[in-house]
Structures are given as structure tokens and as C-alpha cells.
Amino acid sequence: MSVKQARPPIGSTLEAALARRIDPRGPTPSALLECLVELDAIDRAAYRAVRSTASPTLDVRLAQLSNAANYSRLWLGVAGALALLGGRRQRRAAALGVAAIGVTSAVVNLVVKPTFVRDRPDQPKATASEVPHVRMPDSTSFPSGHAASAFAFASAVGGELPAMALPLRVLASAVAYSRVHTGVHYPGDVVAGSIIGAAAGAVVHHIARRRGPRPLAIT
After folding, report:
1. Contact (CB, 8 A) for 123 and 183
2. Mean of the pLDDT values across residues 154-179?
3. Which stretches of 18-148 are assigned E, i.e. beta strand?
4. Which of 219, 201, 189 lies closest to 154, judged by CA?
5. Pick from 90, 179, 87: which is nearest to 142 by CA?
6. Hey, is 161 helix, strand or coil?
7. What is residue 134's predicted lDDT score, i.e. its pLDDT?
């Protein structure tokens, strides 16, 4: 006789946060919850697959990239280079990129993270012989702030400087993936963060275009 595998209990995870906000009187709430549980299981399986694959060279490089993006230092550095070495349009693009990071950080940290509380992945402690990964942040996991800031900057600057759109998005994608590879986010966290950031960057660029070509000052 086959034994049905028991579903793991729902804890402080993304689907648990959503479950608390689903109206039980609404249409097929149980089906929606089942979908959320299955999506969460797929997300965790993808995370385990990445973490269980040996990649010592990538471990070092992606940890360096992830740490470089802490507090948006990577993007602020790019913005500074554009402002110092470029002309009026480059300075405007740099200002839009910084503004997009600010908007995205506010949305992620003040709205989304407090609303959808998801625990960070379980990360085993590294031994002395292992290459250390990045520090596990104290904040909740969903969505990834690094991914959101990366795509916000890439979207805003790329909208103003089309020649930089592809290189910046490739770099933003690498930063987003580094958060999964180094064990501090699930893939779903970085996907959600990337979408939020790209949308915020596009909105900031759109508003700036409607205001006209006046350059924005960076202080």
C-alpha cells in the first residue's frame, strides 16, 4: 500500500504570508494555496540544485560581485563614472539611475518585505577549507533588494543611454544570480526583485522624460 507523502508545514514563508491575505470566502482559495505551496517547493528545489553543484571558481567571483553590490556601491560607482567622465546626457542618466535605486529601495524595504515575510535559506556554516560566501543579511528574504536595485539602475540608465542598456542588464543579471549562488536568496526572491526594480526604473525614466530634458543634479 502506497503512503502519501505528507506536505511540509507552512511556516514563515512566502506562501504563508500570502495565505494570511487570501479571503477564505473568495473563489477556490484552497487551489490557490496549493499552487503557492508547489511554487515554493520548486523554488527551494532550484536553490538546492544551485547550492549542491560544485563551482569553486564561480564561488569566488560571484561572492566578490555580490559584495561589490552591497549598499548599491557598484551602481553608485558606475553613476559616479558617468557623471565625471560623460556629458550632460550621461549626468542625467546617472541621476536617474540613483533616483531609481532610491525609489526601489523604499518600495522593497518599506512595503514589500514587511508584507511578505519569508525566511532566508538555510545556509550551512563554511569550514576553514571552504571559500566563504557573503554574509547572511538580517532582513527577510523576499524580494531581493540587490536584484531590485540592480535592475532599477539598469532600466533607468539604459532608457536614457540605449547603448548601455544591454551591458547594464547583463551585469544586473549577474548580481541577481550571485545572490542565489552565494546562498542568501531563493531564485524566486531575485526574480521578484528584478521585476520590481525594472518596473521602478522604467517609471522613473518615463516621469523624467515627461518633465523634459533638464539635467538632474547629483549631490
Report:
1. yes
2. 97
3. none
4. 201
5. 179
6. coil
7. 82
pLDDT at 33: 76
The pTM of the full predicted model, rounded to 2 decimals, is 0.81
- DSSP assigned state of 69: T
The CATH class that applies to domain 55-211 reads mainly alpha
What does the pLDDT look like over 69-87, one tens digit per residue?
Answer: 999 999 999 999 999 999 9
Nearest to 48 by CA among 181, 165, 205, 193: 181
Task: Report the alpha-carbon distance of residue 15 to residue 194 in Å, rounded.
Answer: 19
Apex 194 CA angle, 26 and 185, nearest 5: 85
CB-based contacts of 148, cutoff 8 Å, min separation 6: 104, 105, 107, 108, 193, 194, 196, 197, 200
C-alpha cell of residue 4:
502519501
Which percentage of the chain shows pLDDT scores above 90? 63
Counting Cβ atoms within 10 Å, is residue 22 exposed (0-12), middle (13-18) or buried (19+)?
middle
Domain segments of the chain as ranges: 55-211
In 3D, which of 67, 66, 184 has the Cα closest to residue 120? Answer: 184
Note whether 147 and 195 are within 8 A (CB): no
- For residue 202, pLDDT over 60 is answered with yes
Q: Which three cell numbers stand for residue 40?
A: 515554493
Q: What is the residue type of 217? A: A
